[in-house]
Design a protein that fits this description.
- By secondary structure, this protein is an alpha/beta fold.
- It contains 14 helices and 10 strands.
- The chain has one domain: Divalent-metal-dependent TIM barrel enzymes (TIM Barrel, Alpha-Beta Barrel).
- An 8-stranded parallel sheet has the order 3-2-1-10-9-8-6-4, with helices on one face. The chain has a two-stranded antiparallel sheet with strand order 5-7.
- Helix 1 crosses helix 13.
- The protein is globular, with a radius of gyration of 22 Å.
- The structure holds L-rhamnitol (RNT) and zinc ion.
- L-rhamnitol binds next to loops.
C-alpha cells in the first residue's frame, strides 16, 4: 500500500466514526506551539558562567551540548526541520546575545540584545515567547529574588522583570505575533519557614511593580507559573498554585500558567485546564513529563499528554491556550529530545482533533456511559499512524522514524566534534 492509499483507508474509517481527518489536519497546521531554546544547552544560557540554580536540574552528560548562540541556533534549525506544524520560539532572558566585549546585567537588558534571535525567528516565520530569568545569577540572594527581604536585591529583580516586558513588546512588534511573557521564580525554603505570608506579599508587590511597566496588552501576555517544590526548596515555594492562580484571577490581563510537572503526583493538569477555562479568557501551559518529581523528561505521546490535548480541543480552546514545551534532558541527543517532544505534542493534538468529541459529549449527557466507554476504547486502535503520516507529508516533514538518520549524521559531523 502506498502512503496515499493508507491515508485514504484511514480517512474512510474515521469518517465512519464521524471524524473529518482532512479538517483535523488543516486545523493543526494553524496552531502555534512554542519550542523552548533551553533543551539545547541544558538551561545554561549565555550571560553567566555559574551553575544552574533555582531548584531545577538538567541531569545527564550527553556530548554535543550547544555552547554559543550560533551552535544553539544551528541545532535548533536541525530540529525544526523534523517537526511538522507551526512553531514559536521560546527564549529566556539568560540567552541574551552580547557584542564582543559587551555585557550588561539583567536589570539593564535591552531589545538589541535579542536582535539576533528576532532575525532567527523572522526568517523562520516564528513568533517569540519570553521568560525573565530569575535564577542562575549571583544576585539571587539566599535563594531569593522577587521575594527577597533585601530591598536592593528585590529591586534588581523587579527591574529585570520590567526590562523583560519591554523586550517582550519588542518581540511582538518585530514578529507581528503576541509575546507570552512568563514569570517563574524558584524562591522558597528548604525547611519549615517561620513566615509563609511575608515572602508572598513581597512577591505580589514585585509582580505588580513589574506589570506597572507600560505595555500593550494585545502584544504582551504576562503569565505567572506556579510550583509545588524545587530541589533544595522542598518545604515551601512562594509561588504556589493558590498564590499564582489568585494573582492571575485578580490582575486583569495576567494569565495563569500551569506546568504539568508542578503539582502533586496524583494531580493532573488535564483536569485543571477546563476548570480554569471556565473563568479565564486565556491560559498558558508548560508541557513536560514529570517522572516521580518535576524531572522535565521529554514529552511523549502518553495518556496524560493526550488527555491534556483533548481538553484543549474539545472545549474549543485552541485559540485560548498558549502551549509551550518545557523539558531538558541532558542524557540523550538534545536535537532528538527536541524533535521527539515536539512531535509527541503534535500527535496528541492531532489525535484529539481526530476524536468525535461532540458525539462523546452527547453520550455523556444522555448518561450512555457504557457505550461511551466502549467507543472510546474502540477508537484507540484506529489507524492514527496513517493520519499522522499524511499530516507530516503535508507539512513537508519526514513521517516515519527515518528522521533519526539525519540526527545521527548531524551528531557525527557536528555535535561529537564540539
Ligand atoms: C521550573 C519551571 C520553569 C523552567 C524554565 C526554564 O520548574 O518549569 O518554567 O523550567 O523557565
Ligand atoms: Zn515550566
Amino acid at each position: 500500500m502506498t502512503q496515499k492509499e493508507r491515508y485514504e483507508a484511514a480517512k474512510e474509517m474515521y469518517a465512519g466514526a464521524g471524524v473529518d481527518t482532512d479538517a483535523a489536519i488543516a486545523a493543526l497546521k494553524e496552531i502555534p506551539v512554542s519550542l523552548h531554546c533551553w533543551q539545547g544547552d541544558d538551561v545554561t544560557g549565555f550571560d553567566h558562567d555559574g551553575p544552574l540554580t533555582g531548584g531545577i536540574q538538567a541531569t545527564g552528560n550527553y556530548p554535543g551540548k550547544a555552547r554559543t548562540p550560533e551552535e544553539l541556533m544551528q541545532d535548533m534549525d536541525k530540529a525544526l526541520q523534523m517537526m511538522p506544524g507551526k512553531k514559536k520560539l521560546n527564549l529566556h532572558a539568560s540567552y541574551a546575545i552580547f557584542e564582543e566585549g559587551e555585557y550588561v546585567d539583567r536589570d539593564k537588558l535591552e531589545p538589541k540584545h535579542f536582535a539576533k534571535w528576532v532575525a532567527f525567528a523572522r526568517e523562520r516565520n516564528m513568533g517569540i515567547d519570553f521568560n525573565p530569568t530569575f535564577f542562575s545569577h549571583d544576585k539571587v540572594k539566599d535563594g531569593l529574588t522577587l521575594t527577597s527581604p533585601d530591598e536592593e536585591t528585590r529591586k534588581f529583580w523587579i527591574d529585570h522583570g520590567k526590562a523583560c516586558i519591554r523586550i517582550s513588546e519588542y518581540f511582538a512588534k518585530e514578529t507581528g505575533v503576541p509575546c507570552v511573557m512568563n514569570i517563574w521564580i524558584g524562591d522558597g525554603y528548604k525547611d519549615i519557614p517561620a513566615d509563609r505570608m511575608g515572602p508572598r506579599l513581597r512577591y505580589k508587590d514585585s509582580i505588580e511593580q513589574i506589570l506597572s511597566e507600560p505595555y500593550d496588552k494585545n502584544l504582551v501576555k504576562p503569565c505567572v507559573e506556579s510550583k509545588v517544590f524545587g530541589i533544595g526548596v522542598e518545604s515551601y515555594t512562594a509561588g504556589s498554585a493558590e498564590f499564582t492562580l489568585t494573582f492571575a484571577a485578580t490582575h486583569e490581563g495576567c494569565l495563569p500558567l500551569m506546568d504539568n510537572g508542578h503539582y502533586h503526583p496524583t494531580e493532573v493538569v488535564s483536569d485543571k485546564i477546563p476548570a480554569l477555562l471556565c473563568f479565564f479568557p486565556e491560559i498558558a501551559l508548560h508541557i513536560t513529563r514529570p517522572v516521580r518529581w518535576d524531572s522535565d523528561h521529554v514529552v511523549l505521546f502518553d495518556d496524560e499528554t493526550k488527555e491534556m490535548a483533548k481538553e484543549i480541543v474539545r472545549n474549543d480552546a485552541l485559540g485560548r491556550v498558549y502551549m509551550a514545551l518545557d523539558y531538558f534532558d541532558a542524557g540523550i541527543n538534545r536535537v532528538s529530545a527536541w524533535v521527539v517532544g515536539f512531535r509527541s505534542w503534535q500527535k496528541a493534538l492531532l489525535s484529539a482533533l481526530c476524536t468525535p468529541n461532540e458525539e462523546f459529549k452527547k453520550l455523556q449527557d444522555e448518561n450512555r456511559l457504557t457505550e461511551l466507554m466502549m467507543l472510546q476504547e474502540d477508537m484507540k486502535t484506529y489507524p492514527f499512524g496513517a493520519v499522522w503520516e499524511e499530516y507530516c507529508r503535508q507539512c513537508g516533514v519526514v513521517a516515519d522514524r527515518s528522521w533519526f538518520d539525519a540526527v545521527k549524521q548531524y551528531e557525527e559531523e557536528v555535535l561529537f566534534k564540539r
